[in-house]
Amino acid sequence: MANVVRTLTSSKAEEREWALRCDMAAVFRIGARLGWNEHIGNHNSLMLPDEAEPTFLINPRGYLFQELRASDLIVCNLDGQVLRGKGELRKVAFHIHCRIHLANPKATCVVHVHPRWLTALSMIEGAEFSLSHHNSLLLNDRTVYDGEGDQPVHSNEEGDRIARLMGDKTIMVMRGHGVTVVGPTVHDAFDETYMAERTTMYQMTAMQTGLPLHKLPDNLRRHHTGAWGEKLDARLHLDAWRRVLDREEPDYAT
Hints:
Number of strands: 8
Radius of gyration: 18 Å
Number of helices: 7
Strand order of the largest sheet: 4-3-2-1-5-8-7-6
Largest sheet: 8 strands, mixed
Order of helices and strands: HEEEEHEHHEHEEHH
Shape: globular
Structural class: alpha+beta
């Protein structure tokens, strides 16, 4: 298989990979618009189907989210070796993404970003999602808070600790760091990240008034731990963004 899948023959596997590449490239461009990424850092990865060995798509080292195209993404194995594409895999991305993919086969897509509001929440001692916004009725049972991550993720041991802590949760607020969100599809992980960041924005804005937050009844929790898209229009949301990108940044899908 050549490096740029778009130029290949029209086998089903190649078509499927290209469609996934376009979804991933769209999420990078949307993330750039929303201010989720930390300069040329932060990574989103996706396990690929139809491969002889477990492999994943990820952004190569050194690219801004806003310049990434579908053909720029590299394919790596779970040992961190680049199998297809140009560029290298950043070590911190290897230690976070590979270890989560290895530990949790359901974590097909891993989004690791530093959005403004979730990152700010991660810096406040003891802060968690308050059961104050309707979105939190769904988010709260899906979230874990990492109170031990005081250093950058520079080893497999730290990556394994993160993967164990995440367990079957889909959102990890990483103390002083940012957020990692996992899902069975690109659109699931993207939409859950989007909703978590927006909900945190509302909570942090309300907290700035200094007034107490209203608490919603605990019995209204949704207790849903399955795919995010089973409850929300995750696919439709990503499709809507892709229509915007098709008009304004069509090169994302090249």
